[in-house]
TrEMBL record:
It comes from Halolamina salifodinae. This is A-type ATP synthase subunit D. Residues 223-232 have a biased composition (Polar residues). InterPro entries: V_ATPase_D. The gene is atpD. GO terms for cellular component: plasma membrane. Gene3D superfamilies: 1.10.287.3240. Has multiple subunits with at least A(3), B(3), C, D, E, F, H, I and proteolipid K(x).
Length: 232
């Protein structure tokens, strides 16, 4: 509350410095918030496209799997899947977007040539190969979707945090500081008026005392003149 602030010049200067600093911080955070929102919208568009591709890839892979099971039998399909020796490997790095650290996922050994899938060329079929191709493509889409959606979540969290900070400055801290500033300025003006009034009273009293002293001195001189002996 403003009443809790001691109305001194020193406190007024300190509050003015805090207001200036808070306004600069507010402007910086607003710019960061707007930049984050723009980056988020770009990532959101990208995520929507990736999600659509992921749905299509999943549907395609499922159809290929159903066809392979129908034509080659479930045992052959399971045998080809079990023959896989090298599984996909993931490595994660990070990149900075407007101060937000988001993951960057690198995948290896996802797509393989036919002779490296483990089940061999003999005993395989075009339908099983097509199913393997479709699922490798699906895995790529899943990894990309995971990277983008994780970035979205981190960006959204940072946007909300920045919004709260902007609102705290705009609707709480700055109004309180300006209220304190106004309170101190009013008190200092009151003190200045009181001081001027006090000085005027002192001056008027001094002038009255001087006038009274001059009147006393004048009466004394007049009395001394009238009491002096006349010449014969």
């Amino acid at each position: 509350m403003a009443e809790d602030v001691k109305p001194t010049r020193k406190n007024l200067m300190a509050i003015e410095d805090r207001i200036e600093l808070s306004e600069r911080g507010h402007d910086t955070l607003e710019q960061k918030r707007d930049g984050l929102i723009m980056e988020f919208m770009d990532i959101l568009d990208q995520a929507q496209d990736i999600r659509s591709e992921l749905d299509q890839d999943y549907e395609t892979a499922q159809k290929k799997l159903d066809m392979a099971r129908a034509m080659e039998g479930d045992v052959a399909v399971r045998g080809a899947a079990a023959a896989l020796k090298e599984h996909p490997e993931l490595t994660t790095q990070s990149k900075n977007i407007m101060g937000v650290v988001v993951p960057q996922i690198e995948a290896s050994k996802v797509r393989k040539p036919i002779d490296e899938r483990g089940y061999g060329l003999v005993g395989s079929s075009a339908r099983i190969d097509e199913t393997a191709d479709a699922y490798e493509e699906l895995i790529d889409s899943i990894i990309l979707a995971a990277e983008v959606e994780t970035a979205m979540k981190k960006m959204l969290k940072e946007i909300e945090t920045t919004k709260r900070r902007v609102n705290a400055l705009e609707f709480k801290l700055l109004p309180d500081l300006r209220e304190n500033q106004e309170y101190i300025e009013q008190k200092l003006e009151e003190q200045e008026r009181e001081e001027i009034f006090r000085l005027k009273k002192i001056k008027a009293k001094k002038e009255e005392e001087e006038a009274a002293q001059e009147e006393i001195d004048a009466d004394g001189q007049e009395g001394a003149t009238s009491a002096s002996p006349k010449a014969d």
